[in-house]
Design a protein that fits this description.
two-stranded antiparallel sheet
Length: 295
């Protein structure tokens, strides 16, 4: 299928992925371009992984990322390709940049040390594999010896000892079964600590509030008890106590401020105090219920 406004044609592809046309170069729809060149895409991904020494799960992860990159944003990457140029070359540049960006994102931007550069290309490769990619020495040695055949395993170990140490970079990793099995126990222990602290704070809060409420005048104690202990509406409260409803809202706010001040004086910070008595939805017994309050 061709892009809108172009003439229909049958493109040919050379063995190197170059699209061959006669005359002008109309564009295929990017989806059709991708489907017609899936094997080419796989070969380019394999070459990029081989050049970057990606193997196993790392190579599979990058291949998946590469495929998504080619189709996301309505095939934006493929839409930018000039059909008069090599598709294989274009994909190689795009996917090498993608791999570089992914490594910078996960590992941070990497720069070879001066010591590695003094040891030449083999030193740079060694440092990249050993320190940036955090690969074990038994994996690094055959890769470096394949690139620099004049070096032995002992030579490479000596070169590695000369490399400056760097702080370990944080990397995303999967949790093993042992870690996953112990995680619930750790969470339960943390939950118990939080629960114990909540109980201690609740007890301290209840004692401070009980003392503060007991010090209020009788009518104020009644307002607090009915409003928060019995969850009575302000309208019902005004009707029962025969008080004007509108000023009662302000009076309740002042009473709450007074209770917050009492908690602050007891060593309970303002934020915690506001969370505990700033709403009427707490399950905490604050000494306001009929069975727990003071008269």
């Amino acid at each position: 299928m061709l892009e809108t406004g172009t003439a229909e044609f049958s493109p040919c592809f050379s063995g190197k992925g170059r699209m061959l046309f006669s005359g002008n170069f109309p564009k295929m729809h990017p989806r059709d371009l991708l489907e017609a060149n899936l094997s080419l895409v796989e070969r380019v991904i394999a070459r990029v992984c081989m050049k970057a020494h990606l193997t196993g799960a790392d190579a599979e992860d990058f291949a998946s990322t590469a495929h998504v990159h080619l189709i996301e944003n309505d095939y934006f990457v493929l839409r930018q390709h000039d059909p008069s140029s090599s598709l294989a070359g274009y994909l190689a540049v795009v996917l090498q940049r993608l791999l570089c960006d992914e490594r910078n994102r996960t590992l941070g931007r990497w720069r070879s040390s001066a010591e590695a550069k003094r040891m030449g290309e083999a030193g740079v490769l060694l440092e990249t594999l050993l320190l940036r990619d955090q690969r074990p020495m038994q994996e690094v040695v055959p890769i470096v010896t394949a690139a620099a055949r004049n070096l032995t395993a002992r030579d490479i170990e000596t070169m590695a000892a000369r490399l400056p140490r760097r702080e370990a970079r944080m990397r995303a990793t999967e949790l093993d079964e042992t870690t996953m099995a112990t995680a619930p126990a750790v969470e339960q222990a943390d939950a118990r600590v939080v629960e114990e602290e909540h109980r201690r704070l609740a007890k301290k809060t209840q004692e401070a509030l009980s003392d503060a409420i007991a010090a209020l005048p009788l009518e104020d104690r009644t307002i607090v008890k009915l409003r928060f202990g019995s969850a009575m509406s302000v309208a019902d409260l005004a009707r029962i106590l025969q008080l004007p409803q509108r000023p009662l809202y302000r009076r309740i706010e002042l009473l709450l401020d007074r209770l917050r001040q009492a908690l602050a004086q007891a060593g309970i910070d303002e934020r915690t105090a506001t969370e505990l008595i700033g709403s009427a939805t707490d399950d905490l017994d604050l000494g306001l219920s009929d069975r727990g309050g003071r008269s």
